[in-house]
Write a sequence for this structure.
């Protein structure tokens, strides 16, 4: 590894991460994770000796390989590299980094461009689901230029539509792993739900909050974070996730009414407040808004059509939910953007 490792550093949605080919990393998971910690500069709050950006949103890794499934083109393993702990977790997916998997797969020759647009079928290894991304490839090359905008990212870029099927129970085995729309944990009404991302959805008002607090204020509220963690540790086993003390799921999501969106969110990932909201978390919260009797449904302003705007601290994410006549969510989608930031070799700190 002294000669460095081929690495694409890319923005996907509202996150940034390092994209590697699996063949360029150690096959042994423990050795791979130890290497990634050194590459990112963890554990260190500043990640000063690595390429991580001192934030969970910029300490992420995508590992790509030829697909092991006939219905997909590429395998995508997401790894969350903790900033200030020596931990690497594969316990969740990441819908933001997913937005750049299609472009990265084409850039690295895993998928051939097929005209002005190329559909890339992505096997999300963490959740065993398949997403279909549509990538602009004029003249057989990935184009990152376009007029699509997403909140939380300045400027405009090429759109990356993402469509997901059968997300329900992606990690928990069922949309509602307890079989109930509402469970009470420490006196708080919670919806324990997984439609792509295990989430605990709660009314911000039950914590004495408006739900409009900014990220810094929530991160500084140690009493609130202690209450959320206590609930999270109890929710883990109820959601078939086991002991989640060292896992990045479930996501703790506080919701409140929004004047210009379906609902407003403050999402913890899991110990810091998210600057935005993850793609799969947004899909899951939108789905919670459709469930009669849930805290989210009580606070939500449901749209007439399929597009659900899910507000977050820096704007809103647009989620597409397609529903059966009985209201059951059958398909979800979203529109993201992505951009290549650099292509080169990365060097890990000495072991």
């Amino acid at each position: 590894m002294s000669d460095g490792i081929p690495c694409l550093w890319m923005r996907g949605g509202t996150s940034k991460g390092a994209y590697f080919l699996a063949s360029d990393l150690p096959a042994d998971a423990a050795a791979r994770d130890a290497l990634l910690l050194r590459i990112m500069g963890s554990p260190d709050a500043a990640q000063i000796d690595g390429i991580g950006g001192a934030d969970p949103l910029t300490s992420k890794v995508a590992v790509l390989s030829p697909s092991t499934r006939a219905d997909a083109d590429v395998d995508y393993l997401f790894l969350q590299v903790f900033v200030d702990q020596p931990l690497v977790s594969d316990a969740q997916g990441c819908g933001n980094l997913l937005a750049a998997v299609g472009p990265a797969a084409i850039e690295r020759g895993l998928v051939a461009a097929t005209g002005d647009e190329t559909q890339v079928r992505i096997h999300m290894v963490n959740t065993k689901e398949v997403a279909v991304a549509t990538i602009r490839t004029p003249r057989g090359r990935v184009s990152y230029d376009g007029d699509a905008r997403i909140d939380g990212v300045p400027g405009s870029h090429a759109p990356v539509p993402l469509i997901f099927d059968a997300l329900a129970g992606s990690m928990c085995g069922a949309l509602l792993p307890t079989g109930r729309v509402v469970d009470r944990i420490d006196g708080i009404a919670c919806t324990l739900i997984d439609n792509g991302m295990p989430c605990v959805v709660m009314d911000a008002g039950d914590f004495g909050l408006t739900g409009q607090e900014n990220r810094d204020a929530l991160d500084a509220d140690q009493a609130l974070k202690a209450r959320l963690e206590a609930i999270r540790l109890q929710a883990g086993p109820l959601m078939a996730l086991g002991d989640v003390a060292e896992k990045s799921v479930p996501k703790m999501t506080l919701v409140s009414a929004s004047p210009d969106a379906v609902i407003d969110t403050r999402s913890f990932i899991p110990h810091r407040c998210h600057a935005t909201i993850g793609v799969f978390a947004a899909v899951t919260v939108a789905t919670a808004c459709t469930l009669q009797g849930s805290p989210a449904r009580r606070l939500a302003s449901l749209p007439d059509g399929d597009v659900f705007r899910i507000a977050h601290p820096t704007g809103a994410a647009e989620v597409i939910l397609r529903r059966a006549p009985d209201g059951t969510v059958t398909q979800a989608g979203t529109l993201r953007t992505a951009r290549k930031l650099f292509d080169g070799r990365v060097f890990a700190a000495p072991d």
About this structure: Residues 27 and 143 are 32 Å apart (CA to CA). The longest strand covers residues 329-346. The chain has a mean pLDDT of 96. The longest helix spans residues 222-238.
